[in-house]
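Hi, can you check this record?
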Amino acid sequence: MCAFVEPPPCSRRGPPVLKLPELIADVLSLASLPESQDAADAQRHKLARATVCSTWKEPALRLLYSAPYLTSLPTLHLFARALQLGESRWSDLCRIPYSTPGRYVRALDLRYALGGVGDGEEDLEVNLVVRGVVALCPALEELRLPGGEWKDEGEGVKLGWGAWEALGECKAMRVLEGVEAPGVGRMRALEAFLGALGKWGGLEVLSLRGPSDHSPLPPSTPLPTIPAHALNFPHLYTLHIHTPLPASHPLLALLSLASLPRLQTLGLPPSPPTLYALLLSHGAHLPSLTLHALLTSPLSPPTPPLPVDLLLLTPSLQSYTHHPRTPPPLPPHAPHLREVQLTRPRALSPSHDDAFAALGKRARFPRLERVRLKEFRWLAPGTSGQAVMAGLHGQVIRHAHALGARGVRLEDGEGNVHVP
């Protein structure tokens, strides 16, 4: 009787070979795509493929769970139960160490499922669900939470230390959007957050908000000791920080010292500590810069003016997006600047007129091709001339004529030029 020989572990084998279900899943992902780009329609098409035949069922389910469409918190709960049911049925004797359908999940978009969740009683429930879901998705590559856009109102979802520790086990993370950096008052969550960032060497897109709670740290509590070289993102090409990071926050120092050789787009809030810390470190070869606007109420104090030398720290800048309604800080000379995007102000002040006049000077911006005014639309052709030249619209038309004479297009928010 021959002795039982234990099969070698998977780590000692050669490169993986695609099996028939995986090949069918790849074919299904490319074939019979829905004409509509709506996520709900795409989800229905994926579900319909699973009912074609038994051969298609497993590949279609693999495709269905790779990027589930979650519209509400109850839907997220149902998805979590499906993952937990698959985990309970999984046997330790299986050669694949991870259960299905959890190992199929590649992207989680929770912007709709958690969009209406605010601070308070639901925070604990949300953290438990997110922690339970992420722990069963070892191949997760993309996670999007509400708060990843500059115009999103309210605060982001506060993840606790347990959720961050579970996310840290997803070594293949490439895209992380909408997260809120824990404040120094939440030390355990902050350490888990920085520890997770240190494990994601393949991160490509990072979009986060500064801490919403500014509770001071007790004097006897030491700051987390994370080595600067732990944040090394050789593939990161997009970094957005939508709200300010305090000058004493460890993340600000770590990002300033991090290696970002492929950074292409940097978005920052109008906060001098955050601006100077990151532009001094990564602005020399930066091609695209976005300045986010702070969401304020009528009772909020006015935003301080931006430093006039801000863009001097980005000599290679080609595209600049300015979300605040204040006039942009234009450098005295920008030889590579090709595109400027501004947000429509409530009224054009003399400072705005000076900015448009400066953009029309070829000596200062020799390669400028277009200026886009976001949240602004040209009136329809055929509108009376008196209405066209009245108010803000008339002021913009006059600037469009001046820029056009210099060879620069002044576009509205949809990319159209004025048609007389």
